[in-house]
Specification:
Its EC number is 2.1.2.2. By secondary structure, this protein is an alpha/beta fold. It is built from 7 helices and 7 strands; from the N terminus they run βαβαβαβαβαββαα.
C-alpha cells in the first residue's frame, strides 16, 4: 500500500479525487496527511475523510530555507512513499526537493514543456493556440521542468475564458493523477528510472 502526503494551496479538487479513489479497498494507495502553505479550503476534504492536516505559512519563517525545513519535517513524520504537490503554489527549496526526489510529483494545467509556471492556463489562451493539456511531472529545481510522467491534450474552444478552460482541464488532471498513483503503486511507472534515464 502506497502512502501519500498531499500538499495543497487552494480548494483541493485533485486531493478530493485521490481521497475518493482510496475509498475503494482495491485502490493501492492511501492519503496519510494533507499539508498546505496556508489555511487552505481543501483542508475541508481532508477533514471529511478523517485525514490529519498541517500548515506552514512562509511568512511565519525568517527565510524560504527554514520554511522548507519545517515542511520537510512535517512530511517526514508521516514517512510517505510519495509526496504530491496538487495546486501547491510555492516553490520548495532545493534541499527539500533533494530529500524527497524522485518520489515528489506535481500536477500542472498545461501540456509541458508548453506554458510552465503559475499561469499555464492564462498563458495558453494568450498564445492563441488551439490546444493545451494537463501534465504530471517529477519535481526538480526548475519551474515545471522535471521529467514528464503522464500528460493528455485538452482542446481550447472558441470563447474559452481562463475559468472555463481551467474547469475543463481539472477533470483531466484528476484522472491523470489517480491513474499515475495507481501505476506507481503497481510498479508500472518507475520514478527512479524516469528521473535517471
Amino acid at each position: 500500500m502506497l502512502s501519500l502526503v498531499v500538499l495543497i494551496s487552494g480548494g483541493g479538487s485533485n486531493l478530493r479525487a485521490l481521497l475518493e479513489a482510496s475509498e475503494d479497498a482495491e485502490f493501492p494507495a492511501r492519503v496519510v496527511a494533507v499539508g498546505a502553505d496556508r489555511d487552505a479550503d481543501g483542508f475541508g476534504h481532508a477533514e471529511a475523510f478523517g485525514i490529519p492536516t498541517f500548515a506552514a505559512a512562509l511568512s511565519s519563517y525568517p527565510d524560504r530555507e527554514s520554511w522548507g525545513d519545517a515542511i520537510l519535517e512535517q512530511i517526514r513524520q508521516w514517512q510517505p512513499d510519495l509526496v504530491i504537490l496538487s495546486g501547491f503554489m510555492k516553490l520548495l527549496p532545493p534541499r527539500v526537493i533533494a530529500a524527497l526526489s524522485p518520489n515528489l510529483i506535481n500536477t500542472h494545467p498545461a501540456y509541458l514543456p508548453e506554458f510552465p509556471g503559475a499561469h499555464g492556463v492564462r498563458d495558453a489562451l494568450a498564445a492563441g493556440v488551439d490546444q493545451t493539456g494537463a501534465s504530471i511531472i517529477i519535481v526538480d529545481n526548475g519551474v515545471d521542468a522535471g521529467p514528464i510522467i503522464a500528460q493528455r491534450r485538452v482542446p481550447i474552444l472558441p470563447g474559452d475564458t481562463e475559468s472555463t478552460l481551467h474547469e475543463r482541464i481539472k477533470p483531466v488532471e484528476r484522472e491523470l493523477l489517480v491513474q499515475t498513483v495507481l501505476d506507481i503503486a503497481n510498479g508500472t511507472i518507475d520514478l527512479e528510472e524516469l528521473a535517471h534515464p
